[in-house]
Amino acid sequence: MSQLPACPKCESPYTYEDGLMLICPECAHEWNADGSTNSSDAERVIKDSVGNLLADGDTVTVIKDLKVKGSSLVVKVGTKVKNIRLCDGDHDIDCKIDGIGAMKLKSEFVKKA
């Protein structure tokens, strides 16, 4: 049995092979056997309307009245949105807004609180 390298992220010795990828069971980091990281692990950079970096769990404030598609509801200016989750796509913030429910927002219409 060949000796697999330790995880480059958390230094765990318990890595295992899955096809062409090496996987760490402790931190779930995946990388190619040649040392390059998986493209899905690439750090995404999402900024708010004034250039502040956003991260999962941040609280943001809406800077513009936003109409909710398929409804007569409006998200008003100044609405605080807590515990955001960043996601891929055009609408890059996934959140829950009190009184409206789950929805996605564009980062260009919020600022970090």
Automatic annotation (TrEMBL):
Entry annotated with the keyword Nucleotide-binding: no
Family: Belongs to the YjdM family.
Domain Protein YjdM C-terminal per the UniProt entry, residue ranges: 46-113
InterPro entries (UniProt xref): YjdM, YjdM_C, YjdM_N
Keywords per UniProt: Hydrolase
Domain of life: Bacteria
Classification via NCBIfam families: phnA
Name the UniProt record assigns to this protein: Protein YjdM
GO molecular function: hydrolase activity
Residues in Protein YjdM N-terminal domain copies: 3-32
Keyword Hydrolase in annotation: yes
